Amino acid sequence: MSTQPASHAFDDAAQTWNRRFASETYLFGTEPNSYLRRQAFRWQRGDRVLCVADGEGRNSVWLARQGLQVDAFDIAEAGVRKAQRLARQAKVAVNFSVADGDRLDWPANLYDGIAAIFVQFADPAMRTRLFNNMTRALKPGGLLVLQGYTPKQLDYKTGGPPFVENLYTPALLREAFASLEIIELTEYEDTLTEGTQHHGQSALIGLVARKAA
Q: How many domains does the chain have?
């Protein structure tokens, strides 16, 4: 999944991710992220949810299959095309757009939910902007579900960026989302089988947070 990656990782984010998504194979698979699957009960059918940097659509399409109204974006046109194909195959509607986190027209107080799953190719400066925009876009009472890798992931090398500054710690997330009520913040390890890119023992962190009503 891709926002605009760190400058030390990629010179051209869209070109990099378009190249990665060019294959017919879904790099991260077509099944939803397991943490998102476990947390999705918190939203109700008909709720409007935004999937941030949704890549090839595995999470947005699955949420739409649960009866949610889903918007999703990614910087890579190739990824969005595959996401649209996945939605057609699943016979669901998702409002996809090609955009990066800085150029998206973030609405205020619109979404019942935001899903941000492995959006860790945003460097720290962009991450701050992205997290602020996500908070602003949640409506009062809206829920954020976020998953990422912790610094220990650098030992496993089973997915994610190879830069410690792009990885998450509990303290980082508490500070970034200080204006939200933290419902769950859990640091754990699990074996991921998400396509070829997230595969194997992984050091993970999950966050569920609510905007004040």
A: 1
Question: What would the pLDDT profile of 156-205 be if each residue is shown by its tens digit?
Answer: 988 888 999 999 999 999 999 999 999 999 999 998 877 666 778 999 99
| Residue-number span of the structural domain to which 102 is assigned | 13-210
Q: Which amino acid is at 9?
A: A
Q: Distance between CA 159 and CA 197 in Å, rounded?
A: 6
Domain at 34, CATH number: 3.40.50.150
Count helices and strands (H / E) in the chain.
7, 7
Q: Is residue 30 part of a domain?
A: yes
In a domain, 147, yes or no: yes
CA dihedral 94, 35, 163, 196 (to 10 degrees): -70
Q: Is residue 196 within 8 Å of residue 26, measured between CB atoms?
A: no
Cβ-based neighbours of 87, under 8 Å, separated by 6 or more: 57, 60, 61, 64, 93, 94, 96
Enter the pTM of the model.
0.92
